Amino acid sequence: MRSAALLLSLWLLVPSARAAEGRHCLWELHGEHNTVYLLGSIHVLRSTDYPLAAPLLAAYSRSRALVMEIDLDELDAGRLGADMLASATLGRDASLRSVMGESAYAHAAADAKRLHVDLSTYERFAPWFVAEAVSELQLSQLGFDPQAGVESYFLARARADHKPVSGLETVADQLGVLAGMPMDLQTEYLLSSLTDAQALPAQLDAMVAAWKRGDGSWFAAEIMHEFGSEPRLYESLLAARNRRWTPKLEALLHENEDYLVIVGTAHLVGPGSVIDLLGRDGIPAIQR
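Above: the chain's sequence. Below: its structure in token form.
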């Protein structure tokens, strides 16, 4: 969906999410007869970021099934591209410049130019799509690959091991989150993405290092930085989805088999996170 560094929210961490020596972005939930592992992911990684830590691999080995934000096993690349373009294409009489306004567009164009991106290339598309496209382009240039992401790695393992795979939401759900944002919020999303892109190379290295050591305090700082001026983005991109996911995760605790659930790390830290919502329902999460 977007660089994990840009999908962090405006909140402080709850105690169960704080980093400790030797911990990872991995939590355990215990049902009466099973364990549900919650793994915070980075959706794109580099091949050099492997191998993954042993506790993450052990959680997968113990689990009967894999649950992700969406079921990547059911994705049709052609259909996904068509659906995304349909959601992103503006109406006949609209343009990126017109929906953003002259001042915001000029600001975005200047920031994009510094990234060697011509914003006029995206004139027919909504701001959320431009943010996604520019982020994907920059990540690719930095050597990050969705095929090397945490979800892709475990999906390949699950296919080879014939483990069931399912999703917490659909592609249509995810596209709806982005396309359904008001234009002013989409504009803020694009401007924020382009501003943060200047420091993205160093930020991504720091993010991967923090993820590997389970350092919640680093993510807390990024949360404050990314959404401090626009909490509506947190609500649209994370909080509302967390509320929809939590009952589904709680239902897994009534099963007899263990599950590995993989979602973006930003969904697992802070007030309003999945971990927080589970705790409010009396279900503690133990960081490993």
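The chain has a mean pLDDT of 87.
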